[in-house]
Amino acid sequence: MPTEFSDILVESAMAILVALVGWITREAVAYFKKKGLTEILSQKQYLVDIGVRSIEQIYINEDGPKKLEKAKITALELLSKNGIEITQAELDNFIESSVNAMNEAKKSVEPEQVIVSEAIKSIETKGEIHP
User: Fold this and answer.
1) How far are the Cα atoms of 24, 45, 107, 109, 128 from residue 119, in angstroms, in the given order?
2) Among residues 43, 48, 39, which one has the least CA distance to residue 94?
């Protein structure tokens, strides 16, 4: 009788242990897949950001559609060189995100530039600076 109870207890403990290991494995796999996906998305955004910024600096006098096309080409080249595949929809979204981030950054800097410009003009009109 005591050995039957011990056998049942051991079998139950083993069943619980197997279930626990299965659950931990499933959660670990999901975590690592998510982490890998997040890392890949970050790499894509980083490379697209580089492409968009470089086109913005090089082709400052071009209009929007030309810049967009050149940014797409540049970003695709950077991604390809790094062995990263991207869909057209992802590329469009990442470029849009990069442009929005640049515009927001530009907006936050412009008021400071205006203040500095006004201060310089004020000093120049007082004759304290001779250009």
Assistant:
1) 63, 38, 19, 16, 12
2) 48
